[in-house]
Write a structure and sequence with these properties.
heterodimer; A: mainly alpha; about 0% strand; B: mainly alpha
Chain lengths: ~40, ~550
């Protein structure tokens, strides 16, 4: 196990996960807007 | 000594191979009905041409669901985990005969369940909700498949315990621990469906009791039904964590994170089934809310998995010479069909996770419930993340078992691409249709009242499903030719077991101990399910007579 391995910082991975979270918010939010547009029934 | 030096005996290879044979056979038959469903949605109903062999859309949908979601997965998983336990622990099974008994019990159960489905006596879909009533042989057959998988699980537990005894103080190998956690979770999860079948459906179908309680039956079913998804996914994760990094040219980013994620799945997989019952009137809103929170908690180990697996791939890509923030992605061995299948699986699961979170949201679910969105979602999980991963595993597993080179990589690569492209078209159309209000489990092609705005998407369902079908045919042809064609060249294939970047021995002991996690899991299930189960059982009403409506 080299020092290089121990210092590995997965910056690309964090970028992909940030993209995932943003996509999640966008798509989840779009479905939520459909829910709101259909009106509240109480 | 690296983990991949241990070789299975010829008997064990044959035993694992038998599992894969039955799995692929089930996939082959079950997948035949996929395009029939999809084309029916786009207006081309081929079922009348299959009379009298296959009677209806619902018989086809039952065959599709049972053979693909239950049989393909369960046989593949038990076979793959047999190999994982043996290779991971570098020892033979403690009681090989016990595992053989488990396997043949599953086979007997499969035949027993398949006959009534083929005779149109059990067209109750793979969820078999009462009051739809199937032939008793269907319920007994499914029970035997589950019991067989339990017995195979006992074989893994005894083997793991023997290894522990022989290796005191040594951290258990990750892939073997993960396999045992998966089967442990399965033993707990299937108690729900066991209770449903043994206390209600089987005696009802035999005429011993007059009716069922559909509400309690659904509660029992979803006690098993959601963790069933993790029973499918965790073996794929074993490959993603413990094998794919090696195939991609790297190492597992963190052994500890992998173990932690698997223990969290063990803890959280079961006590969240009410999120499938948000519109069930018999479950109080407070319990649905609790299960919604617990469902969201599974997002944490899911993100741990995404981080660890992608980081392992990033490490591999950079070892292969990849540069820049995302340039390492191109440096992954995309030309290896085993790798590309699993990368495609991960990409599709990216979207499957998002649509799953929408399902899990109490309010948002009301927009999606029982719409085409739901099969759109689970085709991204079981038919993408799981199935494509199992294809990827098969591309080295079948050569390993048979001692022959994959015949050939080109058809395997085409199979992956076609499934990937077909799934994008199909699942996107299904999700959009769901948002437009199209119901699931409905032969939409027969309906005269379809809104105009659905039609283009229904056509995409047919096109996507057909493309996927060609991909599935290529997969089956590839593994069948590898196994049986005389053209397949001999080859020495190794099981790809990834080393971790850090020494697993540094992993904390609490991530290698069953007791605290088992106690925590049982306690959480009692809290999340106990009061509701007591209430529903105390108020049981066996007054739904049921019947055969197809």
């Amino acid at each position: 196990m080299s020092d290089k391995n121990q210092e590995f910082h997965p910056k690309g991975t964090l970028t992909i996960l940030i993209i995932f979270v943003l996509t999640l918010i966008l798509l989840w939010g779009s479905v939520y807007l459909i829910l709101l547009n259909r009106g509240v029934t109480i | 000594m690296s983990a991949n030096t241990y070789q299975l005996s010829q008997e064990d290879k044959k035993f694992v191979g038998l599992h894969i044979f039955f799995a692929v056979l089930a996939l082959s038959i079950g997948t035949l009905f996929g395009p029939l469903q999809a084309l029916e949605h786009s207006g081309l109903d081929l079922y009348p041409y299959l009379q009298p062999l296959f009677k209806s859309y619902y018989q086809g949908l039952t065959l599709h669901g049972v053979l693909n979601a239950l049989v393909w997965t369960t046989f593949f998983i038990t076979g793959f985990l047999t190999l994982v336990v043996i290779v991971g622990l570098k020892r033979e099974l403690r009681y090989p005969k016990l595992n053989r008994v488990g396997f043949w019990t599953m086979v007997v159960g499969l035949v027993m369940a398949a006959i009534p489905i083929l005779l149109n006596e059990a067209s109750v879909l793979y969820t078999f909700y009462p009051p739809l009533k199937a032939h008793w042989a269907f319920y007994l057959g499914l029970t035997l498949v589950v019991v067989g998988s339990w017995i195979e699980g006992y074989g893994f537990f005894f083997t793991f315990a023997a290894w522990r005894k022989e290796n005191p103080g040594v951290r258990s190998p990750f892939i073997a621990l993960a396999a045992v956690i998966t089967m442990g979770m399965w033993q707990i999860a299937t108690l729900g469906v066991a209770a449903e079948i043994l206390t209600m459906l089987l005696p009802w179908s035999l005429g011993l009791i007059e009716g069922t309680d559909p509400q309690l039956a659904r509660t029992y079913f979803w006690f098993t039904g959601h963790p069933l998804v993790y029973f499918w996914l965790l073996p794929a994760y074993i490959s993603w964590y413990g094998m794919l990094p090696k195939q991609a040219g790297g190492k597992l980013f963190s052994d500890s994170l992998g173990r932690f994620a698997f223990w969290l799945f063990f803890l959280l997989s079961v006590p969240l089934g009410f999120h499938h019952q948000y519109v069930d009137p018999g479950v109080p809103a407070g319990w649905k809310f609790l299960h919604a929170l617990l469902t969201y908690s599974v997002f944490f180990p899911s993100m741990l998995t995404a981080f660890t697996v992608i980081a392992s791939l990033e490490y591999a890509g950079r070892q292969n010479g990849g540069k820049g923030l995302l340039g390492w992605i191109r440096a992954l061995p995309w030309n290896n069909p085993s790798v590309s299948a699993q990368l495609f699986a991960g990409i599709l699961f990216f979207f499957g996770g998002i649509s799953g979170l929408a399902n899990a949201s109490y309010n948002v679910n009301l927009v999606l419930h029982n719409t085409a969105w739901v099969p759109g979602h689970f085709h991204l999980t079981v038919a993408s993340a799981v199935t494509l991963s199992f294809w990827g595993i098969s591309y080295w597993l079948v050569p390993y078992i048979t001692g022959k080179k994959l015949l050939n990589e080109k058809t395997a690569t085409w199979a992956n691409w076609l499934w990937f492209i077909g799934m994008i078209i199909f699942s996107n159309a299904m999700h959009v249709l769901g948002l437009l209000g199209a119901p699931r489990r409905t032969p939409l092609g027969l309906a005269p009242y379809i809104p105009e705005e659905w039609s283009g998407h229904l056509l995409r369902v047919g096109i996507g499903g057909s493309i996927m079908f060609i991909g599935a045919v290529l997969f089956v042809v590839t593994v069948a030719r590898t196994a049986w064609s005389k053209k397949a060249e001999p080859a020495e294939v190794e099981v790809p077991v990834a080393e971790a970047i850090h020494d697993p021995q540094d992993t904390p002991q609490w991530l290698d101990a069953f007791k605290p996690w088992l106690i925590g899991t049982i306690a959480l299930i009692i809290i999340a399910y106990g009061p509701q189960l007591v209430d529903q059982i105390a108020n049981i009403s066996l007054n739904a007579p049921g019947g055969k409506v197809w």
